[in-house]
């Protein structure tokens, strides 16, 4: 079998194992990097919220692949982009890679963000490196809705030096609210503070953005979920990716306001395809779900955080 042939195929997704040429690997801040990979097979099929599994070294150390979210996919150029933080040996090796080198990657993996028909004003909430996959989502929402104001984004970073993607998010038609831990840019605090204030200021009632109780957001029917608008610029769905405390707060805020929410979870992974149970999280209905296969995007009510 050719390495560019799909190693798994279903009606929903094809997973490729291939060697991908590095087009760009640039440093954005002290420990954040941006990489562009040439891989038309993945660029054509990737959806916002999905990830790739990267073999960082040709040797045995590190042994496991590293899961990194897809920050952008461009069908025209046949490229995908990732934004990653150097936190361990694997990402240190990635940071040293040069243009023209190749990476052994597998993807696209996991279930991404649904974009139901009828959404009018989504909110996107990101924290730190969790903002990366939300760039791809912002583009997809803008393409699907084609409105002057696509929604609102609350993006949180440690400091101004670590911000990225801000102009792109605005170019996608989103109102952008930035916050930093140290107050060096925008609001000093957390993006969930701004989300909660926005909702409270508009006095959105619990039933202003509900979905049919017999349907879940995530699943084959998700593009057709009925979304009820709650007035001009009233949030009717929330998307979030970031640290667990941020996701837990988004889940709480969304539940209190009666707004559906989709959360992208991060867990350590081994296989990346649901075989090893290394990334299991507690299901709200009991038992466990696999972040790599059942997620990484879940309806907020599906999982315990």
Précis, in short:
The chain contains six helices and 17 strands. It has 305 residues and is of the alpha/beta class.
Give a written overview of the molecule.
- The protein is an alpha/beta fold.
- The chain contains six helices and 17 strands.
- Strands 1, 2, 3, 4, 5, 6, 7 and 8 form an eight-stranded antiparallel sheet that branches. A seven-stranded mixed sheet has the order 12-11-10-9-13-14-17, sandwiched between helices. Strands 15-16 form a two-stranded antiparallel sheet.
- The longest helix has 14 residues, at 132-145.
- It starts with 5 loop residues before the first strand and ends in a 6-residue tail after the last strand.
Low-confidence stretches: 204-229
Tally of alpha and pi helices: 6
Structural class: alpha/beta
Mean pLDDT figure = 86
Series of H and E elements: EEEHEEEEHEEHEHEEHEHEEEE
Beta-sheet strand percentage?
A: 25-35%
Terminal residue distance: 40 Å
* Largest beta-sheet details: 8 strands, antiparallel
- What is the alpha-carbon Rg in Å? 19 Å
Shape: globular
Number of strands: 17
Helix content: 10-25%
Keywords:
single chain; 305 residues; alpha/beta; 8-stranded antiparallel sheet; 7-stranded mixed sheet; 6 helices; 30% strand; globular
Helix and strand layout, with pairings?
Blueprint: E1 6-9, E2 14-27, E3 32-38, H1 40-45, E4 51-55, E5 66-69, E6 72-74, E7 79-85, H2 89-95, E8 102-109, E9 122-127, H3 132-145, E10 151-157, H4 166-171, E11 174-180, E12 187-188, H5 191-201, E13 237-241, H6 244-257, E14 261-264, E15 280-282, E16 288-290, E17 297-299
Parallel strand pairs: 9-10, 9-13, 10-11, 11-12, 13-14
Antiparallel strand pairs: 1-2, 2-3, 2-8, 3-7, 4-5, 4-8, 6-7, 14-17, 15-16
Helix pairs in contact: 5-6
